[in-house]
Write a structure and sequence with these properties.
Elements: H1 27-36, E1 42-46, H2 55-58, E2 76-81, E3 84-87, H3 95-102, H4 118-121, E4 124-131, H5 138-146, E5 155-161, H6 170-183, H7 186-199, H8 215-224, E6 239-244, H9 255-259, H10 261-282, E7 287-293, E8 297-299, H11 304-309, E9 317-325, E10 333-335, E11 341-342, H12 345-352, E12 372-373, E13 388-389, E14 397-401, H13 402-406, H14 421-431, E15 436-446, H15 452-470
Parallel strand pairs: 1-6, 4-5, 4-7, 5-6, 9-15
Antiparallel strand pairs: 1-2, 2-3, 7-14, 8-15, 9-10, 9-14, 11-12, 13-15
Helix pairs in contact: 5-6, 6-7
The structure holds 2-acetamido-2-deoxy-beta-D-glucopyranose (NAG).
Length: about 475
């Protein structure tokens, strides 16, 4: 079935009309070949961006968004290979790519639609991962990526590193892990780091909360991070790119600030801007799929891509359910992502009472929407193949046909139908005639980060245990 805007016929689509071709080469095939040849280049593109004025820390009050720097500046390009890092900003494009740029590439977009047979067809996936102060969760993220059974040489990874705090080493670790992964040495590296930590006795108290998580959950995690691993596990990905660009932060450090509903709206718009920037920079005509994934997921089925794709004859965007474990004294587990929902009469009525620019945020008393949240209709025994149609989606894990973005949908960085970012992406995508699916009983698990209160309760319980033992 064709939608407006897709290429209707098997005609060639010249992308670089200015160049006279000497030969018609499909540069893409060549690239695939290169990956297979196992000499792996991680290309790091650093879009260095002039920092906004130093006033954003001090004036942490919420203003409108006009102070956000919308200007891009100098572009830095680094090639990372097994031999190290190469700055190619001065010489411009590397020689090899220069040659490729002279070739004309033809794409008939009808071939890049995405369908349930994508894996067998060799359809390529763009994996987009936004990161901020993510140093700690990078090992989880990489283990989850390695665990993907979709052929790694069909996946291009695009990381976006933005607005990290001083002293955070997301960029360094990301580079290190990316190179190791592409060399097939990441598993050793991560295992090595883990045993080094253990030897230093660093586990101990910081992981105390593990004793309070449900036993079956903890065992499941242990198994998920232990051998045997499947064949694809240590294979390099088709490419890895790292984009670095700051988008500014609107949020002051105060707790109340962070939770104010208005701040949430502005925060979501900034995140929308970051996502849009990443996808516009990284999406290529040969991508059939885009998979958005947050870094702080603990476990997720290895075949999540293939599985979500199974629903693509009827749906264009597909999301799993996202839960997180809880200490047993808090009830074992909990819905995590409340942004995937089915619109309600009450929600629509509520929107009519709001200003055009107001953003409805789920989970706040100010905005009683009475919507059905994907997270709340999950059951342990539920049919994993059950599907519900959604209106809003959360950003933790979104599989989307690439054509959804190609045809102009995005993560609105302004208020659209009283929503922003991923929820507005849902509304916008649906308005454009696409269909969105949520799988209520197919679950991925977000990490549990103990709150201050939880930590207090845990140390109280620990003291009690010790007293009991001493008696
Ligand atoms: C890896 O995939 C397996 C099989 O789907 C799954 O059971 C396991 O939890 C996954 N591991 C991680 C770290 O998510």
């Amino acid at each position: 079935m064709l939608r407006f805007g897709e290429h209707p016929k098997k005609t060639d689509l010249p992308l670089h009309q200015d160049f006279k071709p000497k030969k018609k080469t499909v540069a893409e095939k060549r690239r695939l070949y290169k990956v297979g040849a196992s000499v792996l280049a991680v290309i790091i593109i650093l879009f260095l961006w002039l920092k906004p004025g130093s006033n954003d820390e001090s004036s942490s009050t919420i203003q409108d968004e006009t102070f956000i720097n919308t200007q891009d500046s100098e572009v830095k390009i680094y090639d990372i290979t097994a031999d190290g890092i190469q700055d190619v900003s001065e010489t411009g494009v590397p020689k090899e790519s220069e040659k490729e740029a002279l070739d004309i590439e033809y794409y008939d977009l009808i071939d890049y639609q995405g369908n349930p047979q994508s894996k067998a067809n060799g359809d390529k996936v763009l994996l987009c991962v936004p990161l901020r102060d993510a140093e700690k969760v990078l090992p989880l993220l990489f283990r989850n990526m390695m665990n993907m059974t979709y052929y790694h040489n069909l996946i291009d990874i695009a990381f976006l590193v933005s607005d990290c705090s001083k002293g955070d080493r997301t960029m360094e670790k990301l580079t290190e892990y990316s190179i190791a992964m592409q060399q097939g040495k990441l598993l050793e590296l991560l295992d090595g780091e883990k045993s080094a930590l253990k030897a230093k006795g660093m586990k101990g108290s910081s992981d105390l909360y593990l004793h309070y998580l449900p036993e079956d959950y903890v065992n499941n995690v242990k198994a998920a991070y232990s051998p045997p691993y499947h064949e694809e596990y240590t294979k390099p990905f088709r490419s890895v790119q790292i984009y670095q660009k700051d988008f500014g932060q609107v949020i002051g450090q105060g707790f109340s600030d962070r939770h104010d509903v208005k701040v949430q709206g502005i925060r979501r718009k900034l995140m929308g801007r970051a996502r849009n920037w990443l996808i516009t920079s990284a999406l290529k005509p040969y991508h059939s799929w885009v998979y958005w994934r947050d870094a702080d997921i603990e476990t997720s089925p290895g075949d999540i891509l293939e599985n979500l794709m199974r629903f693509s004859s009827s749906y264009d965007v597909i999301v799993p359910n996202v839960w997180r474990p809880l200490p047993t004294f808090l009830g074992d587990k909990q819905p995590y992502d409340l942004n995937s929902w089915i619109e309600s009469e009450e929600g629509l009525k509520l929107a009519q009472t709001l200003d055009e620019d107001d953003v409805i945020v789920e989970g706040y008393a100010q905005y009683p929407t009475w919507r059905v949240h994907l997270a709340y209709i999950r059951s342990d025994e539920g049919d994993k193949d059950e599907v519900v149609e959604l209106d809003g989606v959360g950003g933790v894990s979104i599989l989307s046909k690439a054509k959804v973005f190609r045809q102009g949908s995005n993560f609105p960085a302004f208020t659209f139908l009283n929503h922003a970012e991923t929820e507005a992406f849902g509304k916008l995508t649906k308005k454009m005639g696409f269909k969105i699916a949520g799988l209520p009983h197919y679950t991925i698990w977000h990490i549990y980060e103990p709150s201050e209160d939880d930590l207090l309760e845990i140390s109280r319980l620990e003291r009690k245990k010790r007293r009991y033992r001493n008696d």
